[in-house]
Design goal:
It is built from 20 helices and no strands. By secondary structure, it is an all-alpha fold. The longest helix is centred in the middle third of the chain and has 38 residues. The protein is globular.
């Protein structure tokens, strides 16, 4: 396959994953709208979000991050160098052991809670009790992530990316049920939401298993050993420790926000959700498509193709995440007003969230660049470098959080996360030339991006001047977004196209299916 054909194939795969991810993220937004309309920025919303943090911690440690990064290169190697049968045997042995670890973790957590519940205050006891109720979700989500990773290696990207939509739909249905039948009972409404999480998690696991079964896989309990499992362990331990640094970092930030005020954690969560929207649509899509290819190039020793794939992904991420950051910075208030100013979410809640979102949005390009750099090291089966950098990153984040949280509150926690991400990206960037080799700095690409994003800043800032004193907040916010979003996207894309920015083809790839239908 020549470079042009390969680029087109990558573009198509990224578009498929992005569209599937858009559907999931829209479902996530609807889910959050229902949650905050039901609970507002209240004690109960903070309790529910805290409870969801514990299974998410395990999911990211054992599922989507470390395990997938360690498993995908080895599954790909077994499939390419041996046979599909060997690859599926490897997957079954992995799933058998992962199930045992997760069930043991759930039992351990349950025992610790039952023994220590009497030593906790009522606020923390409720939070950990809800966390215990949600622990089965971590079993579903971690196993689902492993199966979806195998589907990605086999070239199936869109349908696995839709699995998160099932969770969101289940939670939306549960939230609407609570809005109708128990809108004023915070405890009962929170319990209904937890049941929605469990139901959605179960569907989230069954669907990718069905898809992989159609590709010839059959699950069997298999406790046998082979060389791939030993290599997986050697890759997984540093990766999970590196992921643990990041996730412990985030968990401590959320715990600080949870203990700060009754609404601190909910405010930080809502800001992070909007930051994760462009990361999920663009960064996750690009990484999902790029990582299996990088793993294949690294395994085959094709270093030139490896470096080319990384650089294409790097500039594509910058092209998409920098304007997303600028957009949230200037349009954060109207977006929050349109999406969340319903039900129990008040104007005071909006005013508390806007500055936190503004600070958090600055980190979007750095979070995406860190994720790509980590996957690049993992593709070379180097788990140690990201781990060492993550240790330094968590130390920086904790220090910055302690310095800023008293003065700035939740916005200080967001600022510490962003500054620590910048520090972590700088450290990783210094290590990358060992894998990629040295190449001239692409000045033309850099200045093209600067020109396009400079236009974006000037345009959005000038539009914001007309909407400084809204008389009808939601209608005004809708008008603000309608006037700002489409012209800014068109102008940004046109400038990049005029300046012949190579990766802009990915941007226009989103429009090809619609243009074909119109012909």
């Amino acid at each position: 396959m020549d470079e042009f054909s390969e680029t087109r194939a990558v573009e198509r795969s990224v578009v498929v994953v992005s569209l599937a991810t858009v559907a999931s993220r829209v479902g996530g937004l609807l889910r959050d709208i229902v949650i905050f309309a039901l609970l507002g920025l209240s004690t109960w919303s903070g309790l529910f979000l805290f409870a969801f943090t514990v299974p998410n911690l395990f999911r990211r440690l054992l599922g989507e991050g470390a395990l997938t990064s360690a498993m995908v290169p080895l599954f790909s190697e077994a499939w390419e160098r041996h046979s599909p049968r060997e690859a599926f045997i490897f997957l079954n042995r992995l799933l058998s052991r992962l199930s045992a670890v997760l069930l043991g973790s759930i039992g351990l957590f349950s025992g610790i809670f039952l023994l220590g519940a009497n030593f906790l205050g009522p606020h923390w006891r409720r939070a950990l009790g809800l966390s215990l109720l949600l622990t089965p979700y971590l079993l579903f989500s971690c196993l689902s992530a492993a199966v979806s990773g195998a589907l990605n290696v086999l070239g199936s990207f869109g349908l696995p990316a839709l699995t998160a939509l099932f969770l969101n739909v289940a939670m939306v249905i549960a939230g609407i049920f609570a809005l109708v039948f128990c809108p004023s009972d915070g405890m009962l409404a929170t319990a209904v939401l937890c049941l929605g999480v469990l139901g959605g998690g179960a569907i989230q696991f069954v669907f990718p298993c069905y898809l992989l079964h159609r590709r010839g896989w059959k699950f069997r309990w298999d406790w046998g050993r082979n060389a791939l499992l030993l290599r997986l362990w050697n890759l997984f331990v540093p990766a999970v420790l590196g992921a643990a640094m990041v996730q412990i970092n985030l968990t401590l930030s959320r715990l600080l926000a949870f203990g700060l005020t009754d609404t601190g954690m909910a405010t930080l969560y809502l800001s992070n959700r909007l930051v994760e929207l462009p990361l999920g649509i663009f960064a996750v899509a690009i990484l999902s498509v790029t990582f299996p290819g990088l793993s294949r190039f690294a395994a085959a020793g094709e270093l030139h193709s490896f470096a080319t794939g990384y650089r294409r992904a790097h500039w594509s991420l910058l092209m998409l995440t920098v304007p997303a950051s600028i957009g949230l910075l200037f349009l954060g208030r109207p977006i929050l007003s349109v999406l969340f100013a319903w039900g129990n979410y008040s104007a005071a809640d909006l005013a508390r969230t806007v500055p936190v979102l503004a600070v958090a949005s600055v980190g979007i390009p750095f979070f995406a660049a860190i994720a790509l750099a980590i996957r690049t090291f993992h593709a070379h089966q180097d788990m140690g470098t990201p781990l060492r950098v993550a240790v330094l990153g968590i130390a920086a984040n904790l220090l910055l959080t302690l310095l800023l949280v008293r003065r700035l509150g939740a916005a200080g926690i967001a600022a510490a996360n962003v500054l620590a991400a910048i520090f972590q990206w700088i450290l990783l960037r210094k290590k990358l030339p060992k894998l990629l080799g040295h190449s001239p700095f692409p000045c033309r690409k850099f200045w093209s991006l600067c020109a396009a994003n400079g236009f974006l800043v000037l345009f959005l800032a000038s539009i914001a001047q007309f909407f400084r004193t809204p008389s009808t907040p939601r209608l005004d916010s809708l008008l603000h977004l309608a006037v700002a979003i489409l012209p800014s996207i068109c102008g940004y894309a046109a400038i990049l196209r005029f300046l012949d920015f190579g990766e802009v083809g990915l941007f226009f790839a989103f429009l090809r299916p619609f243009r074909k239908r119109m012909r």
